[in-house]
Amino acid sequence: MQFDHCVGTKLEELCMEEESGQTFGRRMGRWRYQNGDDSQYKSKNLTAERKRREKLSQRLLALRSLMNKVTIIEDAVKYIKELQKNVKVLSDQLMEMEASTSMGDVKIPNGETVVADEMEQDKIEPDVKVTNLDRHKLWMKITFEKQRGRLTKLMEALSVHGLELNDISLTTSTGVTLISSCVQGTKGEVLEASSTRKLLQEIIERI
Q1: Where is the BHLH domain (predicted)?
Q2: What is the rounded distance in angstroms from the CA atom of residue 150 to the CA atom of residue 31?
Q3: Less crowded by CB within 10 Å, the N or C end of the chain?
């Protein structure tokens, strides 16, 4: 009985050792399998992260380029709004001058006096005279047939071509409008009297 008991005990110990060895082997196998998978997953994650960062970098570069274009457009819109504002202010001033100015003389800086009443009333031909004050400024004198809204159109056309008027003097008579003013470019560019005179004549013929 004691022998059988000892044999049984030894068999149980051997079974337990075998089972323990198998369990340890399975654990080691799982650890190795899991360790191998972790390395593979880490490699995939690194590749995905690198691609994600590359896409993000490309998007940032595209955004910076777009922001530069947006800034240019915003500056252009701001400049156009300022021009429109100046046109409106000058147009309002001209309308007030048209309403309040009566018949009279127009004084030019060199002291010459032009009497509007001396012009022929039966046929009024537009007349444009332009002289140089300096490289960036001209002095103009324009006479044309008086029509409602014509002065406003003239101011708008000059603004479109990058010209602005200063020191405006306006005289209206029966059917005649006479304007004298200093002309200069909105960007301070050099102006030529001949080309500016030609431009003014073309504008007056259109309006």
Answers
A1: 46-89
A2: 93
A3: N
